[in-house]
Amino acid sequence: PSAATARTQLASLTVKTEGSTDGYSRDKFPHWITQSGSCDTREEVLKRDGTNVQTDSSCKATSGSWYSEYDGETWTASSDVDIDHMVPLAEAWKSGANSWTTAQRQTFANDLTHSQLIAVTDNVNQSKSDQDPGEWLPPRTAYHCMYARMWVSVKYTYDLSLDSAEKSALSGILNGC
Asked: Which among 40, 87, 112, 146 is least surrounded, fewest beta carbons within 10 Å?
């Protein structure tokens, strides 16, 4: 969405203290499910976000290149790329997904339609872990506006809450877009 749309969506989100991770497990968000033929969600994102991606008969990426918006690096081995859940699974859990069905969590974890999945440098994704924009932003500042727009879009689409520090960080970014 545009920055203006993201600001409107952000204003409509519920602000409340983040829930706990009690009961959380990545296994409660079945991810990397089969999407088409032998291709799972990870492989579909690698094909979508890469350039000149070639795959083998089991849909594994054998060549191509991937530009990571988070740090501006380009990778030619798919093993150097993680598929980031824009809103991390644990963050979603603490923001309302704890009350969802397994099917709803599976949809969230494999969403190829919204701004939820992006191919990025693996160690940068690992440094993000399950932090929200009040705690972590991509090292490439030129991407902060897009990152905030995508984050808000996912939270809005899935009616997830945010905490006050998260909202403050997002407002600051979006107001500068």
From this structure: 112
